[in-house]
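Comment thread on ticket #2218

A.B. wrote:
> Attaching the input chain for the structure job we discussed in standup.
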Amino acid sequence: ASADKVVFIPEGKTAKANGRDHNGPLYIARKSTLGEVSFVALGADDNTEARVAAGQSDEDDPETADEETTNDLEPVNASLDMTTKPKAKPRSQSLSAVEQMRAEAASESRRIAGIRKLCGDKHPTIEADAIEQGWSITKTELTVLRSERPKAPDQSQHSPRYNRDVLEAAACLSVGIDEKTLLASYGERTLEAANPLRHIGLKELVAECARSEGIDVPRVFGDGTETIRAGFSSMSLPSIMENVMNKTLLAAYQNTPIAAFDLCSVGTVSDFKEVSRYRLLGTGGFEQVAPDGELKHGKLSDQKFTNKADTYGQILTLTRHDIINDDLNAFMDIPRQMGRSGAESIDDLFFTLLLKNSGFFSSANANLLQGPDTKFGPDSLTVAKTTFRKQKAGP
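C.D. wrote:
> Ran it. Output below, let me know if you need it in another format.
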């Protein structure tokens, strides 16, 4: 122990300490700090034990002892004098040091056991932090619950590099659609962002569509199963593929000349029922005006024919082989062919219908040549060309 406040009792003076009167000259320690209490058992004797039998009495408390006889004395170590005195606790409210230590140890054991029960084998980091930092069981439970909540994708790691329009424009560039055509649909800014991906393949397109919606895809394509499943589980890929195929098909369709549109007019119908059409016919050309300026009335007639709308189409399938082959341009050859076939089908239907009309081609209409001289050759072509040029509207 170390003495914190010591007073000297001179000869002829009396001071009270620990409930007893002491005559000077002597030193009395009014305050001291207990450094250590050691119990040493008898060597090699396991049956040796020590018990604390001493207790603190209110009457024997040195802080409450009568200090009147020493109040006029100067402390020997005045620099160690303490100005605040701890309030004495009643004996009934105080615990012995051993009992308090045991209570604290039991409380700590229960806390650690509760933490380990909450964390189990799933949260070793939380368990270590909770034990080390003295967390309560309640705080540990809240931390575990928060860690088990579903988490939104980390935008810093899964933020899409390209949005849907950029990927779609890149796919269009990859299959060779004209940039001027794409500029009207996507704008200059989107085309600039898509330019680095102008040679994108099917594998990369599938993976980027998945990433754009926060779906994890393997870094290595492998057999493609996981990447394909992830890509087609997104909303972007089917829509992008549909738009790119439609643009490819439309471009091929528009670049194929259709003779039927030069010879016919285009009409509309409301359903697939048979409809009647009428065409007005003139009776001749202009007639010479009489000297008096009179104009003669022309005559009109009509021609009736029937028509019926129908639907033509074809289905296209994107297979796993197409994706693994990673040739977007080769795959888009199919909608190109479909676009050209669509345009050619209009001419096929038109000329098939025209040639079936036996009443249209006749000598009366001056559009029919028959006989041995009509066999295909240079001479017959010359005759047909001359006859065609002689055709005119009216008498």
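A.B. wrote:
> Thanks. Noting for the ticket: The chain has 15 helices and six strands.
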